[in-house]
Design goal:
The structure is a homodimer of 467-residue chains. The first copy, chain A, is mostly helical. Chain A contains 23 helices and no strands. Chain A is globular, with a radius of gyration of 22 Å.
Amino acid sequence: MNGKIVRALATIALGAIIWFIPVPQGVTPQAWHLMAIFVATIFGFILQPMPIGAVALTSITFTALAGVLKPAEALSGFSNTTIWLIVSAFLFAKGFIKTGLGRRIAYVLIRAIGDSTLKLGYTLVLSDLIISPATPSNTARAGGIIFPIVRSLCTAFDSEPGVSARKVGSYLMQTAYQGNTITSAMFLTSMAGNPLIALLAAQALHIQITWGQWALAAAVPGLISILVVPYFLYKFYPPEITKTPEAKALATSELKKMGAMSRGEKIVSMVFVGALVLWSTSQYSKLDATVVAMLAVVVMLATEVLEWKDVLEEKGAWDTLIWMGSLVGLADFLSKLGFIPWFAKAVAAGIAGIPWVPAFVILTVVYLYAHYAFASLTAHITAMYSAFVAVAVAAGAPPYLAALALGFMSNLCMSLTHYAAGPSPIYFGAGYVDQNTWWRLGFIVSVINLVIWVGFGSIWWKVLGLW
Amino acid sequence: MNGKIVRALATIALGAIIWFIPVPQGVTPQAWHLMAIFVATIFGFILQPMPIGAVALTSITFTALAGVLKPAEALSGFSNTTIWLIVSAFLFAKGFIKTGLGRRIAYVLIRAIGDSTLKLGYTLVLSDLIISPATPSNTARAGGIIFPIVRSLCTAFDSEPGVSARKVGSYLMQTAYQGNTITSAMFLTSMAGNPLIALLAAQALHIQITWGQWALAAAVPGLISILVVPYFLYKFYPPEITKTPEAKALATSELKKMGAMSRGEKIVSMVFVGALVLWSTSQYSKLDATVVAMLAVVVMLATEVLEWKDVLEEKGAWDTLIWMGSLVGLADFLSKLGFIPWFAKAVAAGIAGIPWVPAFVILTVVYLYAHYAFASLTAHITAMYSAFVAVAVAAGAPPYLAALALGFMSNLCMSLTHYAAGPSPIYFGAGYVDQNTWWRLGFIVSVINLVIWVGFGSIWWKVLGLW
């Protein structure tokens, strides 16, 4: 409790200090005060004197109380279409988990190709990849669908936390986790914060990143990462058991237990394929991604694959609605009131004279490793993406290059820590990988991804004509 | 399942028929199509092929899919300040229930004056009245705070559903319920739909109903109803036991068990008084009611009276957010696109020539008894309030008279059925009052309230200079 009070006071103090700093020229007091609240909010997300939802609610309440924004403006994030894409995504993922379709997909893959630990690792990542375009909650995907399978595989090989952890468990846990990091970066709809990236890029740079563009730009570096990272872990952090015929047997027996596909699984499959088709063609059909996700939820409700109580009990959706809805509302007005452009201009003036290539590399590296200070990908995006992308472009970097590179880094930074994002505490909490090992592996993987995505990626985007 | 499909088809058919009716002159096709969706939504709320939240979600998804509204417009209700007053109210009420403060208030009252069944009835209503200004969820108040006390009182008197129901149970259940009907009407913040009434009145008539005005206008008819209704039930539906010294003993022992006020209770008391003060002075301080409610929630979170998981588990809040948020968004655009003014004008033309007094009485009576077709006060308000108030004023009724009378009827209609609003199924489900009796008592009480509120009330409002 005392610790909480100290952290609360530190958060408030930081906000107060910024609030009372003389307002720099070129910024309105209103924008400056909003920025003070915003910075204190992000600081509060990191220190967590209260859960982040409560911090966010406090922030918008104070924003309205202090008259920095009108009540309706402070609440405006709650009707943001991006927010409702995320809420719908949580509900969509619930259909995958509830019907068991996600488990079935993974087991089918394991039965087909899972006779060695390395192949098993690839199979887990591949399963994640297949469902990733339709499960924007990477936490639901990694934690709700893949994790239970990894955990039961470990048990099948007598690999438990402790002395037997390294048999297969440590390798599989870390591979599934790092794989999720990569798949999160690969689609506009494979991580909740990605549509936000597209939105912020549109706000800051006036460029449109469509679902198809994102997928195409991520395809080459993504597939290289998926090939390289599990193999790197296999060599650098090897499992003690390498041949795993048991996995096929387990998968076969589990699939037998599951029997034929249930009505619910069939419906979710169809909804899944339908949503994929609509999402991937949205640049032609002009159908909004949020409406597609809502339609998917409505179909699952109408067919009773999802019950209404499943919706109401999906706490992740309501938690995210509140903290992210609050933050998006604040961030939106931070931009509207002119703070972000002013900040980017000021920083750009600071790196004036440096050629754009080193400036861009510095910005990308700083952006990536800043995630040591975040416990949420989306908080990182909301706090830093707009400003960094604006500065990069102001320094001379091509807009699509800057938007995509920083967008992908927004996901790949998840490799770093055991609290980096929703899936992290789940895989860390299983007890197969200690904190030091996690941070060491995470740092090396982040360097590998940086080289693949910015190095090879920028060539690929040049080929695509994006810059 | 078959019944559900029939009800779903009926709902869709009604919407389709209206959609394809040739659009009358003076209405845009867009407004007409939105109206078709809106009517089908309300019809869906009544038939319930799915829970109302799922019906509402389907409606806004279809609205966006069909291009009647843009996605952001269809979602706009979710950032409505009224909606977040309701969400905050659910959380505020949780503080009352969780800390036991509501129970304590009731027991203190019972110990002081509860030595006869009649007095007990009055005491329950009085307890409800005292907490009503700060618990806009009348369901939380009636169901979460008062109901457990009524139920334990019944048990204390060996009055169980069945042969012993009439001992004290039937009377107390019905009195507490009908009392809640009255208290719901008495404050802008004593029923979730009341701020919506003020909002709709502002939209339709451009008049402001403040918290203080509402309370003042409701005070005289409300107190008369509170005096009359429990006494009427006592005479017309008498309990078999009339002297209840046991109640005092029960209250004394329960209060002893509860011990001194806990830290949580003290905090909720202070927050409660603070919110009351801020709400009742908001016309001077210009503090928004929603911001006050959010501040109350934030204080309860910061002091850990409420935990964040309490917030996420408050399903009533999320359910209401979705169905009411959807509906408010649609209703808002129904008005913005010009349908409501057109409809009111058309109906007004139909009753042209009738003097305003009989026209107003007819409208009020029709509005009140239309609630037989509703399972939610707010749905009733959203569907009918704007149009009826506009028609009444078009017919010549003074704006404040029309706005207040129909506003109060929006609450008093709760007396009618066992499915009228959230508290109804709770009290009905206890098994002390059968359906026929409920409807008979409910109808008579509605007539009594109609006479008191429109009869005496209109004189009082004249005295206040509201018309």
